[in-house]
Design goal:
Elements lengths: L1 E6 L8 H12 L3 E5 L5 H8 L6 E5 L8 E5 L4 E7 L3 E7 L7 E6 L8 H13 L5 E6 L9 E2 L6 H14 L2 E2 L9 E2 L9 E2 L2 E5 L1 H6 L4 E4 L10 E4 L23 H11 L8 H17 L4 H17 L6 H27 L11 H15 L4 E2 L5 E2 L2 H15 L3 H4 L19 H8 L4 H10 L13 H6 L1 H18 L4 H4 E8 L10 E6 L2 H14 L3 H4 L13 H15 L8 E7 L3 H4 L2 H10 L4 H12 L2 E6 L2 E6 L12 H21 L17 E4 L2 E7 L2 H18 L9 E4 L5 H11 L2 E2 L5 E2 L2 E2 L9 H10 L2 H6 L2 H20 L6 H16 L12 H4 L16 H14 L7 H10 L16 H16 L1
Parallel strand pairs: 1-2, 7-8, 18-21, 25-26
Antiparallel strand pairs: 1-15, 2-4, 3-4, 5-6, 6-7, 8-13, 9-12, 10-13, 11-12, 14-15, 16-17, 18-19, 20-24, 20-25, 21-22, 23-24, 27-28
Helix pairs in contact: 3-4, 6-7, 8-9, 9-10, 14-18, 20-33, 22-23, 22-24, 24-25, 25-26, 27-29, 27-30, 32-34
Length: 929
């Protein structure tokens, strides 16, 4: 069923009714809610006659203000519950046998006079009426400033009341497809304001009934608002059913025998052939499933038997029957929970904690978020046809994965003069890289793979093979040792499906999705062995500028270093003209040239046999694009590193390290000087985390030209491409305007602001509002519907495994203001105690909950104390010999400790908040040691 909501801004316009009729015909909406009609009953009836929906409930306008229409088709049953000038609550049945649902057609008060009353009525129908609820329409409220563009932030109190209503009602935002904003004031750019005022929200019971519901923002017509279309049951694309291992099989009776028959009994020639084993296992499992009842169906049968037993007159066998059925029921609950837990992709929760409803709701949310029904084409035309959407993705990735050198004149020759700057592997390291893997190494690689990672085309996940290792062992050992002995990989085993993961909320373009390869299990094992061998030597090979995937280096080092750099840039005492260029590498993994990867490995001195293994792994790739569950297109790439492969990050950072070496070579050759932010500080040329690249230097024409040439040479060698739209550049305070313009022209970048983000955190947070991103993230993770569906133990696990690391990550970049931490703490407490009941008394003081378990608490850490703990950690990193080569530590030592030591240092006149926090941690350490 399709439902349309539109604030038409007056139904009397000459184009309003024709446009509305066109919307209704095009969307085949069965129910329509039209707000701000500005029409009395007589005019409303005349205009409704021109529309395809003949049944109506009219709320007349008050003069030229307001007015509501609710229109519906004869096929739908609608019963009016309550009406006012701001809402209509009705009971809707799609057909006589359908479960009745409550629909709230809401028009929020634009003048904010009766908003509280509207939210009270919504809360009544959400919490007390007892029917699945969906509200939609122009709510005239936004959740936060991220749903608003332009204008002032003076409505924060209104936003807070709206969020409070959502928390009390536990409604789930159904999201949207299309443009991000639904209302605009249609003014020039300087005074333009846009907001997402129109939306659809629903209770968890409604979401369970309609798990695939979608909301579309339609093209705007003659109104300030866009119409929104709610599709409760959109046509779902279903791909061919393929074999995929299910976790619930491992708990089911008889599955061990199935594995034994397929892997041992029927293997008459003891060939240990992986492909033959897969064929036998699939046939055996299919036969077993035909004789096995699905867990959900079995659960319903047992519930019926229990109900029948409860009505029966007890006899001597009644108690034994009840115990037997109860045992079967609990076992079946475990199977159902395992089924939904596997699909939810939740990593922090554990099976057996009665979180089935939570897993089910999470699956519905994931499907809604990941489904692709429309995209914007090259000319910003909306593409909704399924075939055209698929074609757009396939063509995009075909172009991305074609080698630029192959498409032109072949692989060009480049200068590798920087080789003199490269470290060398010693003979023992080379030997360890090139030896044949042992059984222990293969087994360790298998068990290092997460058991619930998505399975590839072979259908095998880690949990199945790990649990049944006794049967799978000879097949895995045979295939993996064969690869390392022959350096040949079966093309079938190298094939993968590519799933498209949205990079941001509300993706519109093909480029807004990240392609993640879902590889076969044996390939995962091979790549895990190779990556495990590379990991110990990465700290030796990769310069200190790169902090990703190198043991002993952490992501916060880069953020702290950048903040120190920006602090120096803002200082009047820093008398140099300098720049920091944030270089956005577009589709960095997908564009990496294979010949460049191989050449880099050779330059670093990797043994030839190891290089050949790597070459086979990356060049044997082929894949299909998975869109809405269906695979489309078959792409054989000639470049690119698979995202989702354990090997790719290590290969990528080695290749990116070449840029560091090229710039270091120019520093040693006195062609550039790099950026030194204080006396005796090491020169900074790049700051890298994976593909997040910052290039630094002096803002002088010769240096800027040299840096630009180096970056362009690296891009030409590696296949990288700079994305101009997202690239930014910052300058020191003493940099002149002419030099700023020159640098921006050379790098084709716009000047960045201090509130710009780097690695997910603000570069220089100076206001409390700069931490709104963190509060929004915590709010999203602690969504109210989760509080209702999770058990108390699961809530504790969620807070520990998800929320605390999120806050700690932001703290790792510097101390967070206490007022922000208090707001986060309030959200955590509200989430933990929330049971859907209003104003429930807290049973235990929160201070007692946040003490260790050994002292009677629940082990939650007090968020406000984490600031001091993180500052203490930074102090330890500063004095630890293990971290003395860290670029951040070396810069801080040069900036603040050039004439003293950490134990004697005082707070200087100008310093970052982090340095103040470190010195305070030092005093706390002195007082307690």
């Amino acid at each position: 069923m399709n439902l349309l909501a539109w604030n038409c801004c007056g139904s009397g316009g000459h184009a309003t009714i024709p446009n509305l009729a066109r919307y209704l015909h095009a969307t085949r909406a069965k129910i329509a809610f039209i707000s701000e009609t500005r029409a009395n009953v007589r005019c409303s009836e005349q205009r409704i006659r021109r529309l395809p929906l003949k049944n109506s409930e009219i709320v007349p306008a008050v003069g030229k203000w307001g007015g509501l229409w609710l229109l519906w088709d004869d096929e739908v049953s609608v019963t009016i519950l309550e009406r006012s000038h701001f809402f209509l609550f009705v009971v809707v049945r799609e057909h006589p046998l359908a479960q009745p649902c409550t629909l709230g057609a809401v028009y929020g008060d634009p003048h904010d006079r009766v908003t509280e009353y509207i939210w009270e009525r919504v809360e009544f129908y959400a919490n007390e009426y007892g029917s699945p609820l969906c509200i939609f329409g122009d709510l005239n409220s936004v959740v936060g400033l991220h749903e608003k563009f332009g204008g002032s932030a003076k409505d924060k109190r209104k936003h807070k009341r709206f969020r409070s209503m959502i928390n009390r009602t536990q409604l789930v935002d159904l999201g949207y497809h299309g443009c991000a904003y639904t209302w605009s004031n249609h003014r020039p750019c300087a005074t333009l304001i846009q907001q997402r005022l129109d939306r659809a929200m629903a209770s968890t019971t409604w979401v369970t009934l309609y798990p695939e519901a979608k909301v579309y923002h339609l093209p705007k017509a003659n109104s300030d608002h866009v119409p929104i279309l709610l599709c409760t049951k959109p046509d779902r694309e279903r791909g061919l059913r393929t074999f995929k291992a299910e976790n619930w099989w491992l708990h089911a009776e008889g599955f061990d025998e199935v594995c034994k028959r397929a892997l041992v009994t029927q293997n008459l020639d003891h060939s240990w052939d992986w492909e033959g084993m897969q064929h036998r296992l699939k046939n055996e499992v299919k036969g077993w499933l035909k004789t096995t009842t699905q867990p959900s169906h079995e659960l319903a049968l047992i519930e019926a038997q229990l109900l029948e037993l409860q009505y029966a007159i007890p006899d001597d066998s009644w108690h034994d029957k009840f115990k037997e059925l109860q045992s079967k029921y609990n076992h079946c609950l475990l199977l159902v929970e395992a089924y939904w837990a596997q699909r939810s992709r939740i990593r922090w929760a554990v099976e057996g904690d009665n979180n089935t409803a939570f897993f089910h709701a999470t699956v519905a949310s994931r499907r809604r978020r990941n489904s692709i029904h429309a995209i914007l084409g090259e000319g910003d035309d909306i593409i909704t046809d399924r075939t055209m959407v698929r074609r757009a993705f396939v063509e995009h990735y075909k172009n991305i994965f074609i080698s630029a050198h192959e498409a032109s004149t072949g692989s060009p020759a480049f200068s590798f003069a920087f080789v003199s700057c490269l470290p060398e592997l010693n003979p023992s390291e080379r030997e360890l890289l090139g030896i044949q893997p042992t059984e222990q190494e293969i087994t360790a690689a298998l068990f290092a793979i997460h058991p619930d990672r998505a399975s590839g085309l072979d259908g095998m996940n880690g949990r199945l093979v790990q649990r049944q290792w006794e049967f799978f062992r000879p097949y895995v050992l045979n295939y993996v040792t064969s690869f390392f002995a022959t350096s040949q990989l079966d093309p079938k085993m190298a094939r993968a499906n590519v799933v498209l993961v949205p990079k941001k909320e509300g993706p519109k373009h093909v480029s807004d999705y990240r392609p993640i390869s879902v590889c076969n299990l044996v390939y995962k094992i091979i790549s895990k062995i190779l990556s495990t061998r590379m990991k110990p030597i990465m700290s030796k090979l990769v310069t200190a500028n790169q902090c990703a995937f190198v043991p002993g280096r952490i992501i916060s080092d880069n953020i702290l270093l950048l903040r120190e750099l920006m602090h120096t840039f803002s200082s009047s005492s820093f008398n140099r003209q300098a720049f920091c260029f944030k270089c956005d590498l577009s589709k960095a993994f997908d564009r990496m040239e294979w010949h460049f990867v191989v050449r880099v490995l050779q330059l670093y001195g990797f043994p030839p046999i190891f290089v050949s293994w790597i070459n086979v792994c990356i060049s044997s790739a082929s894949f299909a694009i998975l869109i809405n569950g269906s695979a489309d297109g078959f792409i054989t790439p000639t470049r690119g590193l698979r995202q989702g492969c354990a090997l790719s990050p290590y290969l990528f950072i080695l290749c990116m390290d070449v840029l560091n070496r090229m710039l270091d070579y120019k520093v040693h050759s006195d062609l550039i000087r790099g950026l030194t932010i204080s006396r005796n500080a090491p020169p900074i040329t790049t700051i890298l985390y994976d593909d997040d690249l910052l290039v630094c230097g002096l803002a002088e024409q010769q240096e800027v030209q040299q840096v630009k040439d180096t970056v362009e040479d690296f891009c030409a060698m590696s296949g990288q491409k700079i994305g101009i739209e997202k690239s930014r550049i910052w300058f020191s305070k003493r940099t002149g305007e002419d030099m700023k313009q020159y640098c921006m022209q050379m790098f084709e970048a716009t000047q960045g602001e201090n509130d710009h983000t780097y690695l997910g955190v603000p570069i220089m947070p100076t206001r409390i509002s700069h931490y709104d991103y963190l509060i929004d993230k915590v709010t999203a993770k602690l969504h109210v519907w989760k509080a209702k569906l999770l058990s108390p133990a699961a809530k504790i696990t969620l807070i520990k495994a998800v929320v605390e690391p999120m806050v700690l990550y932001s703290m790792g970049a510097g101390p967070i203001t206490d007022s922000v931490l208090q707001r986060i703490n309030l959200k955590v407490r509200a989430f933990f105690w929330n049971t859907g009941e209003k104003n429930r008394m807290r049973l235990v003081n929160w201070d007692k909950i946040t003490v260790p378990k050994a002292e009677g608490g629940l082990g939650l850490r007090g968020i406000t104390l984490l600031n001091k703990a993180m500052a203490m950690k930074m102090l330890w990193r500063l004095v630890s010999k293990e971290c003395e080569q860290s670029l951040w530590v070396r810069v801080l030592n040069a900036k603040y400790l050039s004439r003293t030591c950490i134990w004697l240092a005082t707070v200087p006149t100008r310093c970052t908040k982090l340095w103040v926090a470190i010195l305070q941690a030092r005093e706390a350490l002195r007082a307690n040691v």
